[in-house]
Protein 1
Amino acid sequence: MNLRNLNCAAKNRRWKTAVLVLAAVFLWLLALGGCGQDSEAGGTSGSKKPSEPVELRFVCAGDVMVHKSQIASQYDSASGTYDYTDNFQYVKPYIEAADLALCNVETTFAGGQPTGYPCFNAPDELADALAWAGFDVGITSNNHMMDKGRAGMQRTLEVLRTAGLETAGSHGAEEPAYTIAEVKGVKVGIVAYTYETPRINGCRTINSQALSAESEAMINSFGYENLEGDLAEVAETVQAARDAGAEIVICYYHWGEEYQRSPNEWQQLIAKESAVTMGADIIFASHPHVLQGAELIEDEAAGRQIPVFYSMGNFISNQREETLQNRYTEQGMLAGVTLKYDPENGVELVDYDVLPTWVDKYFSGGKNVYAVVPLDGSMEQNGALTASGHLNRAKQALTDVTELIGADIIK
């Protein structure tokens, strides 16, 4: 989408004469009905603000990871290229149906030789596949964002934006720490932060890698050593997004303890602070690589409810029963929130829900095949499950997710 970079063509034209420009603008507005147009996933920076209440559907996926075996599985030796679209073919309709779809891109696009864990560097084609699947925003604030240094972090932004995705969580030196996407004429602010590892000689670190002053200024992170001060910085970013016109604010956090299926006290504290004090409307989160619960936080003073998804788990990875003896790492979700925006009365929660997902992996055609399977009513007919024979594993995953999340919000 690159909404922040889109400007009306008329604004970029140089004035030749006042009369000609006024005439051209008048005729152009008559023909197009205004400066810019709406789209299902964002619209342009010139979209007309709604005068009536409008419902907006948001979905977010957890960790998009590319381990070594996933690199080999998507390589086409005949063309020398990669193609990740088949990973997302079964969940694509759910993603495309959203007005704004986000995902955590837990890798870099640093160029050169692709690599897996521990220093992730995915082929650029993954970004194209995420856009093809319907994602609009790639979240880059996570503990692997600096795996290839500042140059890798910066190139990651370039690749995602070239593919057509907005980015949130890291930014250019002259760019704000928030992102604003325009959806059905409503400005949606996205504020994304990742946890830091303990400081080294006073320097902030990501995955124990010390950050230079230049890198530190280009990423969004918070540390538990200075949590109060860092949350004040997050609050400033949220307020800056509001000041820039955001009517809705989404917070994303990369937090929590790996492989723990319940949130810790820090996650709960930050979630409440973000919802009640900062005024966030939605909180999405990940990092533990397994699912954690979802709930509504009550903001009694404002008379509103804020949905928080403590961990959306792995959307796709090679973490699974066979590699970690942990079947919960195969399970993910598309976290969904429907909000009503009323120009007169602000934002109201309509609904929040979870579509459970499961990563299938099987051997076919001489290589591994990966597919994100929606755990919906079509499992019996799903092409991947039919080919793999893993229907019972998918059913077990649905049982696990339902027991953890609760049947009342399962889509």
Protein 2
Amino acid sequence: MKIVQINVASYGSTGRIMYQVQEKALSQGYEAVSFFGRGSVPEKDLKSFKMADNLSVGWHGVTARFFDKMGHGSYFNTKKLVRILKEEKPDIVHLHNLHGYFINLKVLFKYLKESGVQVVWTMHDCWPITGGCAYFLECGCEKWKEGCNNCGQLDVYPKRYVDKSHREYLFKKKHFTSLEKLTITTPSAWLAGIVSDSFMKDYPVKVVYNGIDVDVFKPYGDEINKQTREWLGIPENGKMILGVANVWDERKRMSALLKLAGDVKNQNAKIVIVGLSEKQKAALPEGIVGITRTQNQEQLARIYSAADVFVSTSVEESFSLVVGEAMASGTPIVCVDGGGCSELISDEVGIVVPRDNREALSEAVSKILDETKDFTTACRNRCVENYSCQSMVDGYMSVYREIYGK
């Protein structure tokens, strides 16, 4: 069996997933190739190709912004990709994120339809089933169920200066539903339910949870935790409330996290926020510890391990890697009931609270901080058993074997 994967980038969470799946496929004796639009070829000895250049990505971005044509550019790059795919003759083409100004959807789906190849599409967000946006819970929009129009989210990713959401909805519906051999996977049952209510509802949908590197994200023990807390300025008898995001935008609700400083009952609690821009860090209120974005996973893992409670205030997540990483580190969770995040939580590892409910959030955090029991083992076990990288790649291998028959 030969597996080809296509993703917007070689980096970030979806890039890591692509290469983890490729490594697993190779270890099981399959052939595996990856194509991406942005980033660089990894140092790992994997067959991987960049299919876009900065000029084409930039021009595609211009047409998307000014004419609302995400997925209409990159014609020649995609024609080249199709020529390579015809030479590779894959048995399965595994799609990941197709937004990001790097691929021509019409050209790609024409090949997928005419070749009759088996297609697996991991929908990491809601973009494939809308006229433009990747998330819509926050604005309460349900136009994606019948046909988008008059979009109220032109100023969020992917940003657009004109509204052609109805045209794009029909364009996606036409091409995405043209395939006979398509299996959709999602990283949460919540997103699977969204897909089942969309124009993609006639395709089989399987849940394969994202994977956490449990060898990196783990409990680091009392001594290292003490060193980390001293570095962060946490008093010896103090409590540490942690929030982490790759980008703290409005959907992540950092404002709700900041309000906890005055709301939690434990007066020795201190809030630490990781993933800030320099501007956001400079604007933090006094007493809040801010750390800018870091690519140092071990440093991040030690911060997770040192925390007394991890708080996710994001109102919409298809999975939430940061919640999984905190759980793998043995840290209990308080999360907002938004998207698929709440699926990760059981009563033994944390508390789920309603969206934008300040009182419920502070009460849940206070309750965790006042607990005398040790959450470490329960949190760690739940993540290892359900959300490890091993569980994820095994899930994808199972999907491959089911649709290919071997």
